[in-house]
């Protein structure tokens, strides 16, 4: 099973921008997920589609007595993760074809990635590698567009990402976990946080978006120039002369393997 072309190319090309500019996750959301997964001391947790390790680092720090294994199919991101977490095993695999024996894990976390999966195939595979009663957690930093300049920036992305598979990441809730015998009901919670960025960091944040990263150089430059224009035009940003707050809504879910 191959990785989506946009994910493979975009995240591979801009792995450094991704690590530098993407937000982390708030402590209350991480605590909720770790508690929900309920991996026992000495157990094994898989952080799937781990990227550069943003969520991997958090769950590993929250549960030092748990063996954390990271799985990431994109070489550029996998290399950054391995360099930053040399004691964590990093495996090249996709959600649809995991190189593990049945019942290998007590829990699986997926941060900012489930929308890229072939959900029915992936859920069958996750069911296989989880032990009976093991749990799966999903989390997203979703875009909070309540601030006017933020809405203007994401409106630029609306045009660029119009064919993105995750335009509404809630869509999977109506299909992925409905007609499957593999997992029980979804439990969910919502959190909020902000990412403190300079205007240049905001441009980098947009550069790290997969559909921007894969654009031809001239088209990418045009998109980033549009973002810069918003940042230069908004009085709230100009007046700060420093950092601005980029808000996020954090959507978290967990479900148990049947």
Main traits of this protein?
disordered N terminus; Rossmann fold; single chain; 258 residues; 7-stranded mixed β-sheet; 7 strands
Q: For this structure, what is the CATH homologous superfamily?
A: Vaccinia Virus protein VP39
What is the H/E string?
HHHEHEHEEHEHEHHHHE
Low-confidence stretches: 1-13
Biggest sheet layout: 7 strands, mixed
CATH architecture: 3-Layer(aba) Sandwich
Q: How would you write the strand order of the largest sheet?
A: 3-2-1-4-5-7-6
- Helical fraction: 40-55%
Helix run count: 11
Shape, principal axes of CA atoms: elongated
Q: What is the strand tally?
A: 7
- The level-1 CATH class: Alpha Beta
**Computed CA radius of gyration, to the nearest angstrom:** 18 Å
Amino-to-carboxy terminus distance:
25 Å
Kindly estimate the percentage of residues that lie in beta strands according to DSSP. 15-25%
């Amino acid at each position: 099973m191959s990785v989506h072309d946009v994910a493979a190319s975009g995240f591979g090309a801009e792995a450094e921008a991704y690590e530098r500019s993407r937000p982390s996750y708030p402590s209350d959301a991480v605590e909720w997920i770790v508690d929900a997964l309920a991996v026992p001391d000495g157990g094994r947790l898989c952080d799937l589609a781990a990227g550069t390790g943003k969520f991997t680092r958090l769950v590993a720090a929250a549960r030092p007595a748990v063996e954390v294994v990271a799985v990431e199919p994109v070489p550029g991101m996998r290399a950054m993760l391995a360099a930053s977490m040399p004691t964590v095993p990093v495996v090249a695999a996709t959600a649809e074809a995991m190189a593990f024996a049945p019942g290998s894990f007590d829990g699986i976390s997926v941060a900012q990635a489930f929308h890229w999966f072939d959900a029915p195939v992936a859920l069958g595979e996750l069911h296989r590698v989880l032990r009976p009663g093991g749990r799966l957690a999903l989390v997203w930093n979703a875009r909070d567009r309540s601030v006017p300049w933020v809405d203007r920036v994401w409106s630029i992305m609306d045009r660029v990402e119009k064919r993105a598979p995750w335009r509404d990441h809630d869509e999977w809730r109506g299909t992925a976990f409905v007609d499957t015998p593999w997992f029980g009901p979804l439990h969910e919670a919502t959190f909020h946080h902000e990412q403190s960025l300079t205007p240049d960091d905001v441009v980098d944040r947009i550069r790290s978006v997969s559909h921007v990263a894969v654009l031809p150089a001239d088209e990418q430059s045009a998109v980033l120039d549009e973002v810069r224009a918003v940042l230069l035009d908004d009085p709230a940003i100009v007046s700060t002369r420093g950092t601005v707050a980029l808000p996020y809504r954090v959507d978290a879910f967990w479900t148990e393997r049947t």
